Amino acid sequence: MPDHKPVTPYSDTDVSKKGQVTRMFDKIAPYYDNLNRILSFGIDILWRRKAIKMLAKENPLTILDIATGTGDLAIEAARVIKPIKITGMDISANMLKIGNEKIVKKGLTDVINMEIGDSENLKYETASYDAVMAAFGVRNFENLEKGLSEMFRVLKPGGTLLVLEFSKPRYFPLKQLFNLYFKTFYPL
Ligand SMILES: C[S@@+](CC[C@H](N)C(=O)[O-])C[C@H]1O[C@@H](n2cnc3c(N)ncnc32)[C@H](O)[C@@H]1O
């Protein structure tokens, strides 16, 4: 993996990327769902739906949702796959709080359990989940390799690892539109 400077939310602090990311999500938690809908023009819902449709083919009974945030991927998995257990794990207590409120409202507390934790140091046993998934989460990891290897460690042999993430378009005109959107509009 090439050496590069981590992209951090705040430039005026010496706090680690992890600390800054936690602070940022704790701060935006109450607005996160609405921001997501606006910034993606609602497409984020369709992306999660498509990812869960793919995962459903594997019929996992136990699922770990890494960087679950406000739980949208976990909730979609509970709705479509109907597994026995989903653990939603995140480093931001405020994101989890909002997620928990949604889970209670939807009557999914028997299936989804929201827990605080760090994806780069998972507290779960090796080979303990049928599926491990993350939506728009891995880009926030301070150490991507460590985070991905932890996800793999807790996955049962033959299980499914699902990562939903942006890619960078390489060709005109999508490449130019993507850069304009992410460098100008999105940071606001
Ligand atoms: C863009 S949000 C995605 C939330 C959710 N998966 C979704 O689809 O909306 C990224 C989440 O990653 C979490 N996160 C960032 N670094 C983390 C880490 N090291 N361990 C656990 N969660 C982390 C943040 O707190 C935030 O909730």
List the helices and strands and how they pair.
Layout: H1 17-28, H2 32-39, H3 43-56, E1 62-66, H4 72-80, E2 85-90, H5 93-105, E3 112-116, E4 129-135, H6 144-154, E5 155-164, H7 174-185
Parallel strand pairs: 1-2, 1-4, 2-3, 4-5
Helix pairs in contact: 3-4
S-adenosylmethionine (SAM) binds at residues 18, 21, 25, 67-69, 72-73, 90-92, 95, 118-120, 135-137, 140-141.
Question: What does the model show?
Answer:
The chain is built from seven helices and five strands. The mean pLDDT is 92. The protein is an alpha/beta fold. α3 packs across α4. The chain has one domain: Vaccinia Virus protein VP39 (Rossmann fold). It binds S-adenosylmethionine. The site of S-adenosylmethionine has 20 residues, from α1 and α4.
The CATH topology is given as: Rossmann fold
Give the uncertain stretches in residue-range form. Answer: none
Task: Just give the CATH class.
Answer: Alpha Beta
Main β-sheet, spatial strand arrangement:
3-2-1-4-5
Characterize the largest beta sheet: strand count, sense, and whether it forms a barrel: 5 strands, parallel
What is the CATH architecture descriptor? Answer: 3-Layer(aba) Sandwich
Classify the helix fraction into a percent range: 40-55%
Order of helices and strands: HHHEHEHEEHEH
Overall, the morphology is globular
CATH superfamily heading: Vaccinia Virus protein VP39
Number of domains: 1
Strand content: 15-25%
Global structural class: alpha/beta
Radius of gyration: 17 Å
Question: Helix count, per DSSP?
Answer: 7
